[in-house]
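User: Predict the structure for this protein chain, please.
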Amino acid sequence: MKAHFPLFLRILCWFFLNLLILIAGLAIMVHVQFGSLRNWLLPESAQMQIQAMTQALTEDMSRSDRGEWKVELARLSAAYKMNFALFDRNGHWVTGVDLNPPPEVRQAMTYANQRLPSPPAQPVPGMPPPPWQGPGQGLGPPPEQPPLPNAGPQANRGLGEPPPGNIPDFPKSVLKTEHPSAFWLLVRLPPERLPWPDLVPMTLVGQTPSLGISPLLFNPTPWLGVAGVVILFSILFWFPLARNLTQSITKMTRATESIAEGRFDIQLQETRRDELGRLSHAINRMTARLKDYVTGQKRFLGDAAHEICSPLARMEIALGILEEKCDEATRYCVRDVREEVTHLQQIANELLNFSKASLGESHVKLGSVNVAEVAAAAIRLEKNDVEALEVEIPQELNVLADAELLRRALANLLRNAVRYAGNAGTITLSAWHEGVYVIILIADHGPGVPAGEIDKLFNPFYRVDPSRTSETGGVGLGLAIVKSCVEACGGVVSAANRVPNGLEIRIRLNSVE
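Assistant: Here is the predicted structure, written as structure tokens:
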């Protein structure tokens, strides 16, 4: 016996496996983008770009006057879509855009400089004092700064830490502030490259309202690529499971639809080991039992109708003899009994026809049948009843069917149309090609059928008029016989109301060229 593997557990395992793979992919992406997470908002590519920018800026500053620094910063601002400014070791603005950073940014600048050696207390001979320093005032050591409680871990560890390994690096970090709402890039310029001891170490500060504006801080291309890969992988990962499930469910749906239509020659594969496999097995068992039950029921109807025919025939003969020998008053009663016997014979014959049509699908031999010839035979059979009839059937139209079953179906449909709509107008019998099929249509101008009753028309013993007298149409087996005959020929029959009034019966059979 095959091991049972529940479908719920299978989907759950598949989900967690997909989740683990996605987490692993995200970890790899973070490692590639951010390295050791020392600057977790700065991917490796951005860090290298900032280092190159800082080196170029430092070299330009060392070769130019202080008055030209603002031009260099303006060029950087235009290139990287950020506002740049320079600040000294105490967090005082030197040049560039007057950013007026919030306290947490100033704390981050001075906090990172606490671990650096203090510059000389007096200006270097020959160097003019900075504009914010009065005569005789030295810069002095930076004031003691407490740890930054609100600046984030990247501020406390980003500036002033040595770069990992032997890769040359400038300390840098990114801060996020709420008032104002902005991102701040802090990069300490290398002091050994700037010949201004009164200013170094200087901090390059960049400010942008959003990470997505400046390509220096965030490049969405790798993330979009990873997102696309993740989506594609998830689709490819889940597609086999989803396709496998939907295919099985689709097959079961088609099988149950066929069973609902009365076709029991459906056999589902039972290779699955989950709930769907058990359901397939249950459907196959149900189909086999329903087939035996329905077949036995129809065979019983046929046998019962056949057995009833003999005594009814003997009764009719006896009533005929009795009618000849009785007086006129008694003869009237005998005629009434004889009519009832005749009605019983009609019911028995319909039951026989229904049983033969229902059981004939297994042994009927289909061949090429000319629709026009079969229609003409059906019309001849009903010639006493059909008056206003239009026939529009090409002579070369052939279908795959059994001639006798198709003739019986068309005759019953013509009889039904005459019975319910014979006085309402012309009855039309037409046929035409529709792709690989041939459509046969019988249409009338009668009252039609209530919309909710259309699907019940072909049920055995069903009639819109619940009375079952010979005047109102018999016992309701005519359309059931039509359906059995058409399905035995491999076709499909359906009914629909016409606009503004009338009913049409459509038969679809396979075409034969």
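Residues 35-40, 115-168 have pLDDT under 50 and may be disordered.
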